[in-house]
């Protein structure tokens, strides 16, 4: 899942409990570990998604290895052991150590990451359509709201186009060599169908930003925008359902076919890494928090686990996870402030 100096032993040891290492007053959970360590980041994300109050201490007296203090217990162990310890104390949502425990094949990993990307895109489009409808019914929205929508839609369009290119360059050629070419032909046609709609919505929002809010032209533009977004939402849902029903189940066969044609096991198992490389912007600190915002907590933990398994560049991984942590901690702080009695 990542490297912290010194490197932990390959064999996962059960988490060990002790109440003697540290004894000062502390919150329910305190996490110690280097800030640049992906294991520390995964533990922080697990606690954030579980909505567990915790304190992160960016150092470790245990030779730089991350460890937990849960109440009076100090919990030491390998990454998966620490994540399972959190699951035993705070079950929902399950961390990657539990959610991905039975997932061993490259085909399963790629199918899951593709389906999770579908869920994120669906929810973002649905939210944008709802947002446009509310702006239209509210007289055009607050000052600067159209510009915020333009930024959000721009991020979504970037994710969608990278996802489509990943499928066309990596998945579809494998499917064509192992199954019915007609399945991929339909999927490619649907990609081509939706591209003009995606670009057209971007131009519609750009025009709306410079309009005077509340005018008849602005209201009409908002109504048309909400309709186009709903159309795009329907297209995406149908397209994704078709892929998940008729294409993703063929991944194992496609990978087997490639191995039989001369590609070795290590090549097939690098598919997940190829997904991350082909979707470089989506998995950058700039876009990764936006993409992850479209996933439910349990889905998000699954996605983080898959990314940590397959990202060879540890510096890139640490930067990606830190960007997500920053956004989640900021949201948590805002929620905490809003909940304070006035």
TrEMBL record:
Occurrences of domain Hemerythrin-like (ranges): 117-251
Pfam families: Hemerythrin
Region (Disordered): 1-21
Superkingdom of the source species: Eukaryota
Coiled-coil segments: none
Alphabetical list of InterPro entries matching this protein: Hemerythrin-like, Thioredoxin-like_sf
PANTHER family on file: OS01G0861700 PROTEIN
Name of this chain's protein: (wild Malaysian banana) hypothetical protein
């Amino acid at each position: 899942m990542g490297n912290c100096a010194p490197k932990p032993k390959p064999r996962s040891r059960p988490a060990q409990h002790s109440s003697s290492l540290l004894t000062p007053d502390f919150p329910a959970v305190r996490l110690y570990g280097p800030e640049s360590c992906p294991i520390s980041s995964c533990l922080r994300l697990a606690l954030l998604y579980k909505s567990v109050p915790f304190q992160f201490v960016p150092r470790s007296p245990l030779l730089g290895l991350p460890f937990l203090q849960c109440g009076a217990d100090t919990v030491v162990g390998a990454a998966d052991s620490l994540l399972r310890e959190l699951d035993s104390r705070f079950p929902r949502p399950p961390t990657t150590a539990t959610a991905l425990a039975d997932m061993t094949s490259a085909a399963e990993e790629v199918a899951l990451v593709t389906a999770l990307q579908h869920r994120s895109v669906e929810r973002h489009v649905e939210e944008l359509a709802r947002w446009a409808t509310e702006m239209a019914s509210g007289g055009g929205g607050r000052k600067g709201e159209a510009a915020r929508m333009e930024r959000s839609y721009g991020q979504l369009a970037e994710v969608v186009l990278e996802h489509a290119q990943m499928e066309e360059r990596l998945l579809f050629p494998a499917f064509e060599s192992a199954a019915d070419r007609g399945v991929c032909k339909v999927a490619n046609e649907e990609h081509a169908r939706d591209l003009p709609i995606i670009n057209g919505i971007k131009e519609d929002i750009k025009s709306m930003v410079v309009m005077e809010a509340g005018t008849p032209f602005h209201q009409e533009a908002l109504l048309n925008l909400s309709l186009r977004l709903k159309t795009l939402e329907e297209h995406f849902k149908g397209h994704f359902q078709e892929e998940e029903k008729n294409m993703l189940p063929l991944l194992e066969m496609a990978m087997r076919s490639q191995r039989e044609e001369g590609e070795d096991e290590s090549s097939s198992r690098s598919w997940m890494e190829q997904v991350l490389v082909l979707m470089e912007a989506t998995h950058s600190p700039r876009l990764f928090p936006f993409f992850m915002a479209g996933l439910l907590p349990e889905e998000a933990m699954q996605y983080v686990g898959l990314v940590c398994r397959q990202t060879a560049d540890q510096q890139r991984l640490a930067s990606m996870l830190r960007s997500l942590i920053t956004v989640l901690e900021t949201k948590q702080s805002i929620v905490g402030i809003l909940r304070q009695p006035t």
